[in-house]
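Action item from last week, closing it out:
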Amino acid sequence: MEIEKQLEKIASDQKSSLDNVRKELNDRIEAIDKGTASYEGQINELKGLVKEYGEKSGASQDHIDKLDARIKELKELGMSGNRAAETTIQGAMYKALNDSEDYKEFARSPRAHKGLVVDRMLTKAVGTMTFAASTTGDVAEQTRLAILPEVDRKNRIRQFIPQGVMTGDSVRFPKVTGGEGTAGNQTEGNAKSQIDKDLAEQTFNAQVIAAFARISTQMLGDIAGMTSYLSTELMRLLMNQEDSQLLTGTGATVNLYGLAADAATSSDLSTTANWAAPNNWDCITAAKAYLASQDFMADRVVLNPVDFYQMAGAKGTNGQYVSPVYFEADGTPRLFGMPVYHSTAVAEGSFFCWDSTAASQIFQREAPSIQFFPQDSDNAQKNLVTVRVEERLAHVRKHDKAVFTDTFANVKYIITPT
């Protein structure tokens, strides 16, 4: 019911109640007048009440006007219409009753007028204001933060690989696959040494890494920070997939050609190596030694954080740290001058070691991007928005054996003296 109608009803009910009380009092006065003179005091008291009620009935509209003004004031302060009406009416009733001497007298002597029946009116007892006792719903001011984003990786694999741009759908170049002959010293009058090389065109296609989410426009608009959260989270998941592809992509169909594809492994190590009681650091050094034997200069090592900190915390029998790692001013750890990085993109127990200039290069066809589409499938019908994250890139592997990767267990098995 609208507030105006409630006020009209209150006014009508009040007038009707006053008329009924006045009629009842007049009837009682008439009945008492016909009785004995001993009721004279009661007659005078009842006549006074009739006169008072008559005066109050004329002022009822003034009370209604004041209630109406108070309701409008509370509504302007943000209170709902029903709550405002309830608040002002209860307050007015409570004040009127407590200010009335007649009501106080009536309360003290409930048997004074046996024939007069008054419906009991209830008001809230005065008490201590608490959230539990005085509020409904969440009315307190609050500090609300945006959606807490997921934790992102500190090191991305693309940080350790040279990058460039490309045109078209692929990167191609002739790769030397074999050949015969070598240079030699010439004997006067004899033919010079002859060499030949076998070439094959290598093609590395630009591949798409993408994902999407669909969300209602209400959720997108009503939850603070939802747009930035989706942008951050979808990008994080995209980069996680990129990390995986750059490390272990097979190159088949839509996969990138990762660092592990055709890389050197423990089977390429010399079985004559003599690493007494080898540890994980020895495994990395053995890998670096192999790359150097192929004329590559390892300048990148990436392993899992669990392995890194276990290795960094290694101690000898005397309780002293024995790790051969030292840290630069920027916090970068180095092993024999080579930076060592850790990333959860690398499986625990495994490691990668490579020559970054000779191993590979990223060519970005389309940079990672986030887009919001209100038009997609039945989005318009259902008030949905599609959020897409996407990139397109090629990973060109140059020299296969410029990369070494394996597990620490496999390398230890090979380099342990028999």
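Closing note: The domain at 159-173+202-415 is CATH 3.30.2400.10 (Major capsid protein gp5 fold).
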